[in-house]
Amino acid sequence: MQLKVVSWNIWGGRKLPEVIQCLSEANPDIIGLQEVLQDEGGANNSAKAVADALGYTYIYETTTLLIPSISHLLEKHGIDKNMEWGNAILSRYSISNRNVHVLSGERKRTALEGTVTIEDKKLQVFSTHLVYAPTQPSHTQTTQMQNLLKVLPKENGLVMGDFNATPDDKIMEDMAKVMVNTEEDSTKHTADDKKVDYIFSTTDIKTISSGTLNSQASDHLPIYAIVEI
Predict the structure, then answer these.
(1) Does the predicted TM-score (pTM) go above 0.85?
(2) Domains of the chain listed by start with CATH number
(3) In the chain, which stretches have pLDDT less than 70?
């Protein structure tokens, strides 16, 4: 069976109608989203809005609370109230066994895991977003990757997200030792003229094709992979 998987840092859902349009046209089976915003307490979740529009199921986890006085993201979006910020997984199939892995306490980041059931197959799907680190190597990023590597599945697994690192950074080289990068062309930039967004699979999953989608709805391009399970 072939599946289409999309990963996208949606920039807080600043252009949510365009995000929904792009994903509707792409028609993926599984979606990993990063920089998902919701009101403090849970209302107006941007992943829920996408899932409702597409008719998908979804799971979400809050990574941190953003405060306007210290949040560059909220400042850019003109938001003057506290917001919660995290990752999400969406699918046209059922999602169960929601699990949150804390990757670091300092500058907290997490990986959201869910089990997507497709007929008789169960896929372990992860959506994550590592901290931005303009200088490499980064101690915090290294810690986050080390903790992520500890919880990765050995088979039937997909791990996607904004890793805030280029293919030649050591943390991505470490990731590539244990999982398959579905898009190895580092010239396909996804943000700031760099490749920082990835979809990885376990070795038992075959990549058919991969690439980026055309959208101006975020400061990151959405990426996709068609895989065979």
Answers:
(1) yes
(2) 2-228 (3.60.10.10)
(3) none
